[in-house]
Design goal:
Length: about 200
């Protein structure tokens, strides 16, 4: 645990939050505010208490506390991209808020890495669902038509229909965050775990 440094408490909170959010997303199709808001507050207040405003320096093999500014940067990195997707109508608000919680607990690098893995998991889940329901050709045709209408600047409608299967995107984000969490436990908070070396 010394690899995780002074932020080990945040990773413990994150693990609990991810399990609760994944279960509610699968069972009820929602990630509730009573899961996300307390996690965001715990991340911000906890990092302020542990690392002050800017964080503390760590040792070479043990990182210091992140601090409030690091938690705010993580919140913005986790929430911002998914807020845009929510405003476009592509995801639910709980999906954006769970990533805000992930970011406030872990920082911006972890949040972006978790989003990357979450989207990869969502793509795999979507392919599996399409193959299982045998609607690959029908779905690709609708999406292709949608993209064509966008290209010619027509006003396309939503490519989804009432028959379109629901993808539990919140679950995918939780799995992506859990993958990032496992990697940080294995490698520690080093550059090796982060995508594109950021």
């Amino acid at each position: 645990m010394s690899r995780l440094g002074d932020n080990v408490w945040a990773y413990g909170v994150l693990a609990v939050v991810l399990v609760v959010a994944a279960v509610t997303d699968v069972r009820r199709g929602k990630i509730y505010n009573w899961t996300t808001y307390p996690a965001i507050v715990i991340g911000l207040v906890g990092h302020l208490c542990m690392g002050g405003l800017t964080g503390t320096a760590g040792e070479s093999d043990r990182p210091g506390a992140m601090g409030l500014l690091g938690a705010l940067a993580g919140l913005a990195a986790g929430f911002g991209p998914l807020l845009l997707a929510w405003l476009a109508g592509g995801i639910g608000g709980g999906d954006a808020k769970i990533m805000a919680a992930v970011g406030s607990l872990t920082g911006w690098r972890f949040a972006l890495t978790a989003i990357f893995y979450g989207f990869a998991v969502a793509a795999i889940m979507a392919i599996f669902i399409l193959l299982r329901r045998r609607i690959v050709r029908e779905t690709l045709s609708r999406v292709g038509w949608f993209l064509w209408l966008l290209l010619v600047r027509a006003k396309p409608g939503d490519p989804a229909t009432e028959k379109s299967p629901r993808l539990p995107f919140g679950l995918a984000l939780c799995i992506g965050s859990f993958i990032a969490l496992v990697l940080i436990c294995i490698f520690g908070p080093s550059e090796r775990m982060f995508i594109l070396g950021i």
